[in-house]
Amino acid sequence: MENSNQFSRRNFIKNTTGVAVALSLPTIIPATAFGANDRVRVAVLGVNGRGKNHISGFSSLKNVELACLCDPDNAVLQTRAKEYEAKYGKKIGTEVDLRKVYEDKSIDAVSIATPNHWHALATIWACQAGKDVYVEKPGSHNFAEGRKIIEAATKYNRIVQHGVQLRSSEAMKEAVKHLRDGLIGNVYMARGLVFKWRPDLGNKGTEPVPEGLNYDLWTGPAELKPFSKNYVHYNWHWHWNYGNGDIGNQGIHETDLCMWGLGVDTFPEKITSAGGKFLWDDCQETPEILSSTYIYPKEKKIIEFEVRPWMTNLEDGAGIGNIFYGSEGYMVVKGYDHYETFLGRDRKPGPTRKAGGDHFKNFIDAVVSRDASTLNGPPETLHLSSGLAHLGNIAYRTGRALTFDPKAEKFVNDKEANAMLSRKYRAPYSLPDKV
C-alpha cells in the first residue's frame, strides 16, 4: 500500500483549488537544523484543558525541552506552572501573550491547545515566525481557515501536525490497510459516532471579567461579547463564536477516520444536516443532537455522522468511534485504538487489534528530520476533517440540503451558505489575506 500521508497530500492538492500551485517557494526564515543530540524547545499555548495532555506528552520525550507555558488566564497559567515544577522538579517560563512567545527565537515549536477560534491564527502566526506547529483539533474554526493553514505551512516550510492522535495509532493504521486491501470488500459507507454525555449547562449570565484573565486576548479574532462563565473555560465549545459543537469537537477524530478509511481526499458534493436542542433549556447554541449526511456521487461513497448527548444505546459496542460498511462485511472502531471486523452474512469475527501510538513523537521526529512527508496528521488532512465538520454545521444552520463544489471550495449558487465559510475577524487579530 502506498504511504497514506503522501497519498493524501499529493491527491488533495491536485483535486482542490489551484491556490496550492501558486504558493510561494519556501521560506525566508531558515529552518532550524537539529543534530543528533539537539533538543527541540516547545511552548504550549493554552493550558487549561487539553493543554495539560500536551505538557505531559511533550515532557515524556527525551529530545524535547518544554520551554514555556502560555495562557491568557494568568491564574490558570501560574497553577499549571506550579504543578509542572512539583512534578518535574524545575521551574518553567510563563507568558500570557502568545505574541511574546513567537518573538522568542530560542523556541522551535509551539503546541496549540487554545479554544477553536484561535487555532488557525495562532498556527499561521507561528509559521510566519519560523515555528513548527502541533495544533489541536479542529485545526480551523471555519472552513476557509484550513486552506490558509496549508498555504502558510507550505510558504514558510513549516512542520504542522493536526492533533488527531488516532492517525498515529498502530491499530488504526492496520485497520485502514485492511480497508484498502479489501478485507470487507468494496467500502462504500462510513459512519461517525459521537455519543457523549453532555449535561444541562444552565445559563450563568454576564459578570465582570475575573482578575488575571486577559479577556480581550482570550477573545482574539472572535466578536467581543460581555464576559460570561458560559464561555470560559470549557463551554465555549457550544457557542458559535468560539466553538463548533460536538461534530467539531470530539467529532473531528471521527470525521478524520471516515475520510481516511474511505480513501476520499476531497470534499463531498451533497450535504444534509438536521438536529437541534431537545433536552435542555440552557445557554448552548450548537445542536445537542445532530445527524449529517455527506455524499460523494463520483466516488460512490457516503458518510453518515451522528451526535447524541445523553441516554443512548451503543452500536456494536461503539459510542465514540466509527463503523465502515463494505460489500463483504463491516468494521467497528472503538475510540482511537481498537477495531473489530465482522465478515459475511453470518458476521464471522475477523481481524481485530487494540494498539495506540505517540502522535507527539511523530511530530517531533518530523521537526528534527525536516521531513513533512512523515507526518501522520499533515495540514491537508487537517483541512479535510475539520472542513467536513464545518460543512455539516453550515447545512444545519441554513436548514437545507446543500450542493458543494470541491474544486472551487464553494457552495453552488448559495450566497448565504458561502458567507458561512469564513467569519468577520476583529482587529488586530485578523487572518491575513495573504499569508
Automatic annotation (TrEMBL):
Chain ranges of the Gfo/Idh/MocA-like oxidoreductase bacterial type C-terminal domain: 202-270, 360-430
Molecular functions per Gene Ontology: nucleotide binding
Occurrences of domain Gfo/Idh/MocA-like oxidoreductase N-terminal (ranges): 40-163
Pfam families found in the cross-reference section: GFO_IDH_MocA (PF01408), GFO_IDH_MocA_C2 (PF19051)
Protein name: Gfo/Idh/MocA family oxidoreductase
Organism: Arundinibacter roseus
